[in-house]
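Data card: per-record layout.
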Amino acid sequence: MLVAVDHIQLAAPPGSEDQLRRYYGEVLGMTEIPKPPALAVRGGCWFQAGPVQLHLGIETDFRPAKKAHPGLRVAEIEEYAAHLKEHGALVVWDDNLPGHKRFFSEDPVGNRLEFLEPVQ
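The structure for this 120-residue chain is written out next.
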């Protein structure tokens, strides 16, 4: 029986770890968590914010996910969007999900990300 999503993995090109650390760590405010040694040799990096984990794995023939994406719930979405814009990130608002404010963005390697907040 499924009980929760443990993590989401996105792909990234070889050599992009520093870009990913800046974006996911400094811009999104996630904490980098250590990869197990047997997996660390493959490159990439893992991040966490509360119970949410995103794993960025290196893929030699990388192509960014343009449709598939994680949906990341945030608080104070307008301020969060402004923060991303201040750091040069794309913010595209979308009002097609009833009961939510949301926008789409991309990480520095082109993966699509959705940020949303329920409307109360």
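Known properties of this structure: Residues 94 and 103 are 5 Å apart (CA to CA). The radius of gyration is 15 Å.

See the next section for split statistics.
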